[in-house]
Amino acid sequence: MEPPHEPRTALVGGGAGGIGSATAAALLERGHRVVLAGRTAASLDAAVAALGGGPRVDRIVCDLADPAAAAAAADDLRDELDVLVVNTGGPPPGAVLEVCEKAWYAAFDLLVTGPLAMLRAALPAMAGRGFGRAVVITGTAVRRPQPGLALSTVLRSATTAAAGLAAREYADRGVTVNCVALGATHTPRRREILESRATALGTDVDTAAARDEADIPAGRAADPAEIAAAVAFLASPAAGYVNGTVLTVDGGLTGTA
Q: What is the side-by-side strand order in the sheet with 132-139?
């Protein structure tokens, strides 16, 4: 039984835009206090203002690709942190045998060691209070490998496995750890991927987008708010028995595969 503890405090990575800011808005709507984490103060300040400012919205500047900084961001809030949304930017596109070692190491910190550092800093204190929610944002490439997204496919798969292990370790202390695997979503990251595909195909971005969406049963890319709604559910008390899972939000693209 979870203790009465409202409103809750959520730390949202990548909070300056895209999935992060949409998630922050969804959590605010549900009564949380939200702290946005990101690399630049100016973009975070703009995101705070867009969310209405006030005492329920704050920000912390840190590079989530730096494990020490990622851990410090969570540790700064350890006495009040109830919800951790591990959300980072995506690495550059590339084929698996074309990505150089330097790129693999850089992406490893961004997608594996940084997120694990945040979880390591946050989960014990959550467990000590008897309640906690960690949601790791991944992508459908962990279920359906995408050749042009080698870094994301390989390394987010590793983080997904690590999240599953953490979920088992803390499940009996009121803490859940889940992943949200998103599909095509209208974000700057999607634009980057489409530009890469358009270049490879010798076409324009609109044509690449149309080809991409033709494969999606829903016939369109997601709005970031639709991803945020899934995150908000997993962050809620109602999701207390949902643990160690990957919730896929992709318009039906991967189905049950």
A: 57-61, 33-38, 9-13, 81-86, 132-139, 175-182, 246-249
